[in-house]
Amino acid sequence: MKFHGTMKINDLGHLEVGGCDTVDLAKRYGTPLYIFDETKMRATCREYYNAFTEKYHNAQVLYASKAFLTTAVCRIIEEEGLGLDVVSGGELYTALKAGFPMDRVYFHGNNKTPEELRMALDNEVGRIVVDNFYELEILDALARERHCVPEVLLRITPGVEAHTHDYIRTGQIDSKFGFTLPNGQALEAVKAVKEKHVSFRGVHCHIGSQIFEMESYVHAVDVMVQFVADIKRETGLAVEELNLGGGFGIYYSDGDQPAAVEEYADMVMARVKEKTEEFELLSPRVLVEPGRSIAGPAGSTLYTIGSVKEIPGVRKYVAVDGGMTDNIRPALYQAKYEVILANKADRELEQTVSITGKCCESGDMLAWDVELPQTEAGDLMLMPCTGAYGYSMANNYNRLTKPGAVLVKDGQAELIIKAETYQDLIRNDVMPERLAKKKEVCLQSIG
Length: 447
Ligand SMILES: Cc1ncc(COP(=O)(O)O)c(C=O)c1O
Ligand SMILES: N[C@@H](CCCC[NH3+])C(=O)O
Fold this sequence. Notes:
Elements: E1 8-9, E2 15-17, E3 20-21, H1 22-29, E4 33-37, H2 38-56, E5 59-64, H3 71-79, E6 83-86, H4 89-97, E7 105-107, H5 114-122, E8 127-130, H6 133-146, E9 151-157, E10 179-180, H7 185-194, E11 199-204, H8 214-235, E12 241-243, H9 261-278, E13 285-288, H10 292-295, E14 299-311, E15 315-320, H11 329-333, E16 340-341, E17 351-356, E18 365-372, E19 380-384, E20 404-409, E21 412-417, H12 422-426, H13 433-446
Parallel strand pairs: 4-20, 5-6, 5-13, 6-7, 7-8, 8-9, 9-10, 9-11, 11-12, 12-13, 15-17
Antiparallel strand pairs: 1-2, 2-3, 4-14, 14-15, 14-19, 16-19, 17-18, 20-21
Helix pairs in contact: 2-9, 5-6, 7-8, 8-9
The structure holds pyridoxal-5'-phosphate (PLP) and lysine.
């Protein structure tokens, strides 16, 4: 298994993250538990900041908060000098509660409600990334009503087919996101924006997630800069910002080979320069929106092993106390992860097992055919790289409670999300009077 960030094996043979012994973390906080390595998260933010903003100045990095967001995460992102991509009223609310500077917020979403747009305007978010004509109409009406002029980007579907799982590919023509470029809809949208009570700042695209091929990004830059030139020629409007979205892939398991962030930055920036010069355009400010690559490798999940089912000659299932409720990615995208026995991290790998969760669902698998030492009930298993789209996609199927999360750094662990309790599960349940009464009658009849 590949070690990430500050992970190491200590003298007791236990896995440590952020200088904290995972066995101690399990005793103190229980399992399942999300563990976030603050040093690793900040290091990746800095890598991005240095590779784009520090080196090129006319470039900005926005953290895609859908990957993992809490108020504490907002603080880290703010301190590291990044902006924030939010995609819902809930993400915006979290940023607001954390006091995140609103001028650094980009508001995305393919079906923003009028309430969400009002919230964005009330709080003067930096940019609204308009996805469709319906949204443009609502925004126009709201802006006129309030005598404000929101600064907008248009989300463009460039027709770029990135190599990744179908469900996380977004640049192709057949996509629910954005104004389609190849059929002329995108240019129509720019023309429409000219007539609206908004200020056009630029264009955005996002070709998908967990992408390794740099050619896909180069292709996106080519298509988008050509579009910037078309916009200038057809409408006279200048594109000040070119937002290329996120999607930078990370290592989850054998075979995943991400490039260095700096390599990606240099490649993108050089191509933008080359193409804008070719079209004699002013160089726009370039933005990128990494989510997974910032949160993913910084997070891991600690589980306790329970039941084991061996079907001789077929498979050995090792069950843990979480599952598709805290990490739905294997079930949804056949995502592959590595695992390590955290309390026996120095032991020989002796068996091939499949890791299953505790949900009533055969698809509730966390990993197929992974190597572990001999295990027994009570052992701890850590799954690295669950920081992105783990907690943020967690759910309460089977009324399982969502795990808590700790931030670890230099031997200190601090809670950043409390584990849910059973009371939390029924917190929003409402008992209609009539059903409550019926039960009282029944109970009375029992005497
Ligand atoms: C518009 C947009 N920006 C950024 C991201 C972040 O992508 P990733 O987490 O792959 O970096 C996404 C999600 O795929 C997205 O839809
Ligand atoms: N949730 C997805 C990525 C989608 C990103 C949002 N556009 C994943 O876990 O890989």
